[in-house]
Amino acid sequence: MSSPTIGRILRGPTGLGTAGLQLRPQVPVPETAGPAVGAPEVPAPEAPAAAGAENTLVETVAPEAVVARTATLGATVPDVQRSSLPVPSLPVPSLPAALTAPRATAASSGGKPKLGDPIPGLYHHPIAEPDPARVEALSLRIKAWAIDEIELYPPEWEKDFDGFSTGRYMVACHPDAPSIDHLMLAARLMVAENAVDDCYCEDLGGSPIGLGSRLLLAHTALDPLHTTPEYHPGWEASLSEDAPRRSYRSAMDYFVRASTPSQADRFRHDMARLHMGYLAEAAWAETDHVPEVWEYLAMRQFNNFRPCPTITDTVGGYELPAELHALPAMQRVIALAGNATTIVNDLYSYTKELSSPGLHLNLPVVISEREGVSRKEGYLKAVEVHNELMHAFEAESAALAVACPVPTLVRFLRGVAAWLDGNHYWHQTNTHRYSLPDFW
Fold first, then answer.
1. Which of 410, 388, 381 shows the shortest CA–CA distance to 339?
2. Is residue 45 very low, low, confident or very high in pLDDT (cuts 50, 70, 90)?
3. Measured in Å, how far apart are the chain's first and last C-alpha atoms?
4. The model's pTM
5. For the chain, percent helix, then strand, then coil, each to nearest 5?
6. Using one digit for the tens of pLDDT, what is the confidence trace for 286-333?
7. Which residues make Cβ contacts (< 8 Å) with residue 234, sequence separation at least 6?
């Protein structure tokens, strides 16, 4: 891969690099970064599909083509383990050219923000408006799935479902998705995850009491039970008992049919992390425990958006091979991305959560409670924590892309960064759900 190509990737408005404050359309992914995928519409699965189903939307890569430059990885990225696979001859881009472009600056902190403005001082990359045709098409299809296929919600929830703007969210987060079918993979999983969160954990019937049992049974819709013929029918019937399990099962069936076995297993693992984070937060709620700031951040590393950006390759129609996904440097980049983007949610949902009964834990509140500062000071410090995480994510993403310039790895990093940008855009512009506190 040439130095200009790496330079363009690292400079794009997706968060990997550094000129993101220029409002411009997302740069199309070149063919060399991953083959285009022509994806026929995936029919609704009739039964849970086995891992490795033939009807895949993902372009896979032969194992012999999945490698990094092992001669440079150990020296350049200390935590990257050397691959045992054959090493191709790949040019390494100039380090200064790839990493010395000017960085974007944080949003202006002058004056009180208006509804729909970004948080003053928050480091982010504005993006172009998502393609309205794609947004409309995806919105219609995800609503039809929710209503007609799985009966997700009663009529009185329709306004909130529409206000969530799933179509706009997913189009913004996945600018390189080849088709609406690929976007639907992400949209179904996003809606299903929110159904579990709302109905099991939050304000639509959720409770910390008994949450572990509910999450365990729901998780078997993602990671199926393997048992004896006598007990299998009881488990099978349980998957239709409530909306969260119906949504998990259907969304995962589609995902398994479209992804590779490795990608499906990666997603299951990420969802187990998410559920563990839910349980930690629930335990604190049951005991009225206000965690230390570092404890809260540890919980948020699990109870966060990680499952969403880590499927960016499936939604993009290609695969980041397991060997590259498992690199310690890649795992650190993914963790930083998940942590930063989840604090975005803490910040934008702050005023919404103030109306919840009791003390709703988020990073600004925990900082205020544990460090003995005002709510305003806690909020502004949380903005600083987010910015530090974003800068670390970008710097380490860029270093990994230079140290390991495998096209699928670089494209995956770019996709994760694009997800962060789209996630911020959705939070900023979703005035149905969010407004900012009067701290400026």
1. 388
2. very low
3. 46
4. 0.80
5. 60, 0, 40
6. 999 999 999 999 999 999 999 999 999 999 999 999 999 999 999 999
7. none
